[in-house]
Amino acid sequence: MRWQEIDGWLTVEEGWTLEHLAKMVPPGGLIVEVGCWKGRSTAALAQGGEGKRLTTIDHFRGDDEAHFANPSLRLTLDDNLVRCGVGDRVDVIEGESVEVAAGWHEPVDLLFLDGSHDYDSVKADVAAWWPHVRGAMVFHDYCPEWPGVVKAVDEAGLGGCVIPDTSLYIAYKETTCPERDD
């Protein structure tokens, strides 16, 4: 199975972008994802991030009962990751993003934020996770359909930009490019 076959709202272009960004993380580096649903973006990050560590965080309750809250959602995620061949490369933390961030003690090379999309949640996630980021923070759904995401990201003043042809916004704290020997 390929990540493109997993149900989700991440476009193919966005998935390829995440896969590419994960490849740019230094060997042994850390990728963190907030919000995974059924694992479409998780699998894309894991496939691009071979040789890196990947942790995904989700409370598995969702904001919308019709789409997200499902007692078997965690099992679906695990099954999808195994079927994509990356199940052994992803650590899943079941919990609230802000609470997990409060106890976090490692620098993050690439953080993909696609949790709750309301203004207060995005603002809280930025405040909780930005101090841990040493590379890049990427937001999904930075677009007019999700004004809470746009407002919270803009107010944070991270100095990033939209990745063309996607709803991804990326902000860099430092370069994640390894040193060249030539």
Q: CA-to-CA gap between the ends?
A: 38 Å
Content of β-strand: 15-25%
Within CATH, the superfamily carries the name: Vaccinia Virus protein VP39
CATH topology: Rossmann fold
For the largest sheet, list the strands in their spatial order: 3-2-1-4-5-7-6
Give the oligomeric state.
single chain
Named at the architecture level, the CATH assignment is: 3-Layer(aba) Sandwich
Structure description:
The structure is a single chain. With 182 residues, this protein is α/β, with parallel strands linked by helices. The chain has one domain (3-172): Rossmann fold (3-Layer(aba) Sandwich), CATH 3.40.50.150. 33% of the residues lie in helices and 19% in strands. The chain is built from 6 helices and 7 strands, in the order αβαβαβαβαβαββ. A 7-stranded mixed β-sheet has the order 3-2-1-4-5-7-6, sandwiched between helices. Strand 2, helix 3 and strand 3 form a beta-alpha-beta unit. Helix 1 (12-24) packs parallel to helix 2 (40-48). It is globular, with a radius of gyration of 15 Å. The termini are far apart. The model has no long low-confidence stretch (mean pLDDT 88).
